[in-house]
Amino acid sequence: MGKISLRRTFARWLLRNVTPNWQPSFYTGPVSDAGVPIGPQSSLTLAAVWAAVRAISESLASLPLPVFRRLPDGGKERDRMHPLYPLLNLEFSPSVLSLNGREALLAHCLTWGNGYAQIARDGTGTARKLWVISPSRVTAVKVGTDEVAYDIKADDGKVTQLPAANMLHVAGLGFDGITGYSPASMHRNTFGHGVAVRKFGSTFFKNGARAAGILQHPDAMSQEAQDRLKKSVTAAQSGDSAHSTMVLEEGITWNQISVPPEEAQFLESQRFSVTDVARIYRIPPHMIGDLEHATFSNIEQQALEFVKFTIAPWAKRLEGELNRKLLTEVERRTHVIEHNLEGLLRGDILTRYTAYNMGRNGGWLSSNEIRRLENMNPLPGDDGNTYLVPRNMAPADRLNELIDAEIAPQAATPARSIEGHRAIIAEQCHRVTRRRDSLVDQAAGDAVELDAALTISRALACKVLATTITAAASALGDAVDGEAWVYEFYTRHMSDEFNAANMADAICRELTRSNSDE
Hints:
- The chain is elongated and about 135 Å long.
- It has 518 residues and is mainly α.
- 51% of the residues lie in helices and 12% in strands.
- The chain is built from 20 helices and 13 strands.
- It starts with a helix and ends with a helix.
- Helix 3 crosses helix 5 (98-111), helix 16 runs parallel beside helix 18 (447-475) and helix 18 packs across helix 19 (482-492).
């Protein structure tokens, strides 16, 4: 018993140390229920898995990853001079582009469940390079009570321990908060079924889309003769020789075994595998080639859902680790690393331009901000930074101020007769009656509400018309208190259903009559 235990211990040591480059789990993995070995690497031989991993990793890696400086007003701006900016957007190292490095990190997460990159720092502690490491070489271990370190195995079997501060670790779904589960391991049987279906199809068509058959001999045959006959028949009926004429001797007969396509359900099994992979990676089926349920009306919505529910969580994982490991404690108060997802959320040109028009007219988008979203250069000068303000909207507490500002220029130039003020009076009466009619409509016949509506409209009339009435009376040689005159006029005619023109005529007529009477 002791010798057996010794052999097993030696075998384990031999596998770990003498032949470190021979890692069957990296290329194949444990056998699934379908009889196919599945591991993080071999799962990528399934086209649907490859497409899903590629769609997620490429989409996120191709996005800009700026370093932003926080502004005092709560906003932020790109800090292109920060030393991390070229590291995250140009190259991880002299031999690895940032896009390829981020893509590899995410691909490792989507197959192994974890992505690792060693952080190389300069003398000041600033990260200068990132080296992506295969997850097959890394093991997370606890050091002490609340610290984690990473054991890295080299090609020669030597293990080096790296502190967590110098290891960028992006983890997928996991239950310990440190390492993520490998989708290839958790869904080995699902991926194995898909690979098995693909292998079955390859073998089926290699044999000319013909199922196996039975050779029947009238007498007994030796095992050697059986093997020789089977070999010759297989060579004559597979590959390029499929469907060729077969000559049988000594009374041997060939009995074909037929497999109806509806029983084999080959195509249905393939579609089922694609749907399962889409479900596992939470990705719209049309993005991995399944257009069975895709329509013109739902593909755009599914693309937006892909960004919100698939890309955004992975972006948060990567951003959190980058901010935690690459920025110092002081820099985290002044800077932040964030993906720019706007490019993936863009709709068609009509939808975008409609949204821009709403933002521009609403006063919360400038021309230069819109041009920047469309990857266009800003307008020359400062005109492109101007915000528009709708004239029909204003803060309620500034109503009197705005009315005074609008009236003052009109009353600044006195006229010599009532006719010089008639047009101004008519325009102001139009404003008053329009507001009065709106308030009366809102009152909806309620006596109390109606009385309040007329009181408010009278106050507005006094405010709007007072200065103009004073100037018009002065042009006629009369000195009146415009606000008191309008208050008295409006009170007398409060029940009259004046329109704007009738009201203006009545005011001009009474002003002229008052002057004539005097």
